[in-house]
Amino acid sequence: MLERLNKVNDVKVYSVFSPDFKAFGRVLSGYDFSDLVTYTEENTEIPESGNIYVPSVEKMENYPIYETVKNTVFGESPIQIGYCNGRNTTYNGFEYHKSPEINVAVTDFMLVLGASYEIENNTYKTEQAKVFFVPKGTAVEMYGTTLHLSPCRVCDSGFKDVVILPKGTNTPLENKIITDEESKLLLQKNKWVIAHPEREPLIKQGAVAGLIGENKELKY
Question: N or C: which end of the chain has fewer CB within 10 A?
């Protein structure tokens, strides 16, 4: 799969098992995410177009892995477990959280990643990002400095992804306060976003249109 992705794309696609991923996160081992994977496989759908994101699913949060991840990766802070399914193929923009995020690949997919400290004057160049292939069954922790957004599919049917974050992340803000340049990027709780000007859904939500360059489409 990785070889094929590199043949059909004009940007290099790395493996999350390569040293290049170490700047953005780590592959998790020693955790059993099988209950979450099975739930997502059996109880969630991939939309006909676009993506669907559900931040918190009670059933998923009742599995034993909830307490394990909460007490280790998140240092006993409350978390939420949900999913993101879809058919995305383009960069569209980037978000970051001031916390870890865990993604569990229920299907193969690609992640487009960057570094939040490379944002300058609320702009970021698409050419600075790197693309990583995440094989089915792999769990990755992305650091709080890692820019990311929706996964990108590697087959016609789309992707499924379990998403674990601090409780309340990606839910509506109660108070939007502008104090500096970064505060303009805060779009939802614990969610700072920079959008490509072509990505109208994000712009309409209030995201800053600061992603510079081609809104690249990844092929498969």
Answer: N
The answer to whether the CB of 114 falls within 8 A of the CB of 194 is no
Domain membership of residue 219 (yes or no) is no
Distance CA 72, CA 26 (A): 14
Reduced to 3 states, what is the DSSP secondary structure of residue 166? Answer: strand
Q: Are 101 and 172 in contact (CB under 8 A)?
A: no
Measure the CA–CA gap between 197 and 212, rounded to whole angstroms: 8
CATH number of the domain to which 69 belongs: 2.60.120.10
- Residue type at position 62: N
Kindly state whether residue 58 falls inside one of the protein's structural domains: yes
Torsion angle in degrees (nearest 10) through CA of 106, 108, 109, 115: 80
| CA distances to 32, 47, 102, 127, 220 from 69, in Å | 10, 28, 9, 34, 32
In a domain, 198, yes or no: no
pTM: 0.96
**Domain span at 59:** 2-170
- Mean pLDDT in runs of 10 for the chain (220 residues)? 97 98 98 98 96 98 98 98 98 98 98 98 98 98 98 98 98 95 97 96 95 97
How far apart CA 123 and CA 119 sit, in angstroms, is 6
Going by C-alpha positions, the residue among 57, 158, 176, 165 that lies closest to residue 105 is 158
Query: How many domains does the chain divide into?
Result: 1
